[in-house]
Design goal:
The protein has 7 helices and 54 strands. The protein has 801 residues and is mainly beta. The strands form 10 sheets. It has a 22-stranded antiparallel beta barrel. Strands 10-16-17-14-15 form a 5-stranded mixed beta sheet. Strands 3-2-5-6 form a 4-stranded antiparallel beta sheet. The two termini are 48 Å apart.
Length: 801
């Protein structure tokens, strides 16, 4: 027995001698870094740090090359002997000046940015925390590389490279959010995503149809939410965050809490955010046309036009929003991981502010025009399998269900009838994504996807005096939209400096719609659309050294007609009505990107990309007829008949440029500039500037960081669009634009100065403060209905468990 006890202690002592722990910290803040990926090919070993920033690297002994990778940090390469000389304590630097940032959106699998031929930007958790935005739309705007349009406070419609709405794709945790009723008009769905529950965000510029299918013409916005964290020990791991945020310009109050419980094989995460937004106060200095001088209020069953006591207050634009996230992760074994996510978002009613600005006979046209609650729910179940075989090394199976509900309600001044329209869409999707390493230098990614949309739409006309309703015109036919597709993407490291990549996708889509002819005698009662589309990409990346990358990308994207394109009935503007056109075909975009990024001596980075996109067979709104009539009665008004038609093509080209400088003593300087110019060419030869090509816009940041303190002093600038350079569709919207000396609408240039700082004054409590629009400018971003906030004071406090 004594011999066995002695052997036991000798073995235990030997294990402790052989075990070698490493501690990894943030170089700037000295915070420990959890979940740092540590890997080596010789010997073949992989591990990660626990929540104390510690990992056992005994299996890496004698390795000449150990890689340390972590999202938002520069990849570190060390030999075991080098680590030993540093007493097994390593510091990783945030990726403010580097070319090897980890990105996912290009292929849905992790890879370094200098292996990707497309331009991608990443918004890290630190960026989200410092910018402290009100909504996810504001978060995208904070990048200075995505232009945001707002028709109302409860919104935010991104514009990227001259494209917007249903020509951009939104992905959340790998699931496409675009539905069959995503419209060509401004979209507000991005606000359904809770910026407090986001782990990181990526924006891919240019077509992404090979990986994402229809709609990915101008770009892809990929959002990744918080993931449950497992315990790396036998003890239960728990963590959490809570925060309160206030802002003065709209009396916003937001509360958030998330909490994680983790065991070794099972973890769960819960998150809840509630926000209340008041009416927005615009700035003191700017065009008088933007002032809100009067508004309509219902008093004693009568619509009264009331003089606004403070014309700087935009009434009514207030609303509130609730977001819920619940996730579970379960490890069956080392090879199989199951995870389930539930997301829910619901707003209150919110006014379509730009419609309330329209006048008729010197009086407001509408007494009320508002959206009902915007509701989004998603159930998402994933299976990840990592056992290598002849077909794949890794496989991810995703099955998801989403439910969308929205409604529109409008009533003219002194009219007792309110027109109500309700839409509901159920979306089901299945994805198989696989990767396989073919040789030492080549790999392939491939997958299949099926998407099914069921669209239900109803309309009713309500007498607000007695609340009696009768059946009214629905916005959409009862419809079904389906897509089945397969893709493959091949990558080859031709040399240690040149990477070649190509991919193809085939999509077959179908749409069936049943039209109600009760109100309008359409010459059809149903329609079926069946069509297939090919998309492809070709990319080259040249990395002559570790500090330089040059990329060339040729790609095409497509957008198949959806229910909103083919079947909607709605008033696009006063005096016009859109009716269905069952003869639409898919539109195609052909794009070329050329980019170069260079880092000089680890303190200066220059990033330059130029692009050109040609859109063929474009769907545009043009005059139409219904049974030979060019005008019909719609919502009680004689309206010109229009429909979407494949009647145009478009060109858009531009430049995206950025400079980052890492200065001494924790200072930094960053500039980003975006210029795009687009033109729409109709079949009759007439031309017009492209509607969603934003004016030149840029941002400049001076940052300072030292341990627990971060500061960002920055400005945004937007160029002018004169009347002659305005798209034809915008020239009639004088109610949202400033007026030039000739009495014509135009979009003036504007700028803002802003200051944000974040300070962690004790280990678990931090505060964030800021002043937006310091000089109190009164400005309205191009094509927006809402005037942006004037001087805005922000305060938030966060507690980390």
């Amino acid at each position: 027995m004594k011999i066995f006890i002695l052997l036991y202690f000798l073995i235990l002592f030997s294990c402790k001698i052989n075990a070698q722990n490493i501690l990894i910290k943030d170089r700037e803040t000295e915070d420990v870094l959890a979940s740092v990926l540590i890997k080596s090919n010789s010997p073949n070993a992989i591990t990660s740090t626990d929540y104390n920033g510690v990992a056992d690297i005994s299996n890496f002994r004698n390795s000449e090359k150990i890689l340390f990778q972590h999202l938002g940090y520069e990849t570190l390469e060390k030999s075991f002997s080098e680590i030993e000389k540093e007493n097994f304590i390593l510091f990783m630097s945030p990726t403010n000046i580097s070319l090897d940032q980890i990105v996912v959106s290009a292929t849905r699998w992790n890879q370094t940015q200098n292996e990707v031929s497309s331009k991608i930007i990443n918004i890290s958790p630190k960026d989200i925390e410092l910018q402290n935005p009100q909504t996810t739309a504001d978060l995208l705007n904070s990048t200075g590389q995505v232009f945001i349009q707002k028709s109302q406070q409860g919104g935010g419609s991104p514009m990227i490279r001259g494209f917007a709405t249903n020509r951009l794709l939104i992905s959340i945790d790998g699931i496409r959010m675009n539905t069959a009723i995503f419209r060509s008009g401004n979209l507000q769905n991005v606000i359904s995503l809770d910026n407090y529950s986001l782990q990181n965000v990526e924006v891919l510029f240019g077509p992404g149809s090979v990986i994402y299918g229809s709609d990915a013409i101008g770009g892809v916005m990929s959002f990744y939410t918080l993931q449950p964290k497992l315990s790396l020990t036998e003890n239960i791991f728990y963590s959490g965050n809570s925060s309160l945020r206030f802002s003065s310009a709209n009396n916003e109050a937001t509360g958030h809490i998330d909490f994680n419980l983790g065991w070794q094989n099972f973890a769960m995460l819960s998150s809840v955010t509630y926000s209340k937004f008041g009416n927005v106060k615009m700035g003191e200095f700017g065009p008088n046309e933007y002032l809100r001088n009067e508004y309509v209020k219902r008093i004693n069953s009568e619509d009264i036009v009331i003089t606004n006591s403070n014309p700087l207050i935009q009434k009514p634009v207030d609303y509130n929003q609730l977001n819920i996230l619940q996730k579970f992760i379960f490890l069956l074994n080392d090879e199989i991981k199951l995870d389930y996510g539930f997301q829910y978002s619901e707003t209150s009613n919110y006014s379509r502010y730009d419609r309330l600005l329209i006048y008729r006979n010197d009086l407001p046209r509408s007494a009320e025009w508002y959206y009902g609650p915007q509701v989004w729910m998603m159930n998402n179940f994933n299976v990840s399998y990592s056992k290598s075989n002849i077909f794949y090394d890794n496989l991810i199976f995703r099955i998801a269900h989403q439910n969308f509900k929205e409604s529109r309600h409008n009533r003219d001044l002194n009219n007792n009838i309110r027109f109500d329209k309700f839409e509901e869409v159920d979306v089901y999707s299945i994805n198989f994504d696989m990767n396989k390493k073919l040789t030492e230098n080549s790999s392939v990614i491939y997958g299949i996807e099926e998407i099914y949309n069921n669209v239900k739409s109803a309309g009713k006309d309500t007498d607000i005096n007695n609340n009696h309703s009768v059946k009214g015109v629905s916005r959409y036919p009862q419809s079904k939209w389906n897509s089945i597709s397969a893709f493959i993407d091949y990558k080859n490291f031709l040399t240690d400096k040149i990477i070649f990549e190509t991919g193809f996708r085939y999509s077959y889509f179908s749409l069936s719609a049943d039209f109600d002819t009760t109100f309008y005698p359409f010459p059809f009662t149903n329609t079926d659309l069946n069509e297939g589309s090919f998309s492809g990409s070709f990319g080259l990346v040249f990395n002559p050294n570790k500090s330089t990358t040059i990329n060339l990308n040729l790609s095409n994207g497509f957008r198949s007609p959806n229910v909103d394109d083919l079947g909607k009935v709605f008033d696009s503007e006063p005096g016009s009505v859109i009716i269905p056109n069952p003869n639409l075909k898919a539109e195609y975009a052909y794009n070329i990107d050329l980019g170069i990024a260079k880092v000089f001596s680890d303190f200066l980075k220059i990033d330059f990309t130029t692009f050109y996109t040609y859109l063929d067979n474009a769907m545009v709104r043009r005059d139409f007829t219904l049974n030979g009539l060019d005008s019909i009665i719609y919502s009680g008004e004689m309206s010109k008949v229009q429909a979407l038609q494949n009647a145009a093509n478009a060109n858009v080209w531009g430049i995206q440029a950025g400079i980052e400088i890492k200065l001494p003593y924790g200072f930094g300087f960053t500039v980003n500039t975006n210029y795009q110019k687009g033109e729409e060419i109709l079949d009759d030869g007439s031309k017009s500037p492209l509607r969603h090509a934003a004016p030149i816009f840029s941002s400049a940041h001076i940052t300072y960081s030292y341990r627990n303190f971060k500061l960002d002093f920055y400005n945004f600038q937007n160029g002018k669009i004169s009347f002659k350079n305005m798209p034809e569709e915008e020239k009639s919207k004088n109610y949202i634009y400033a007026i030039d000396k000739n009495g014509n609408p135009y979009s003036p240039s504007w700028y803002t100065l802003n200051l944000k700082f974040d300070y962690r004054f004790i280990e678990k409590i931090s505060i964030g403060c800021g002043i937006e629009n310091i000089t109190d400018q009164r400005y309205r971003p191009y094509s927006s209905g809402l005037v942006s906030s004037g001087r805005n004071f922000i305060f938030s406090i966060r507690y980390k468990i």
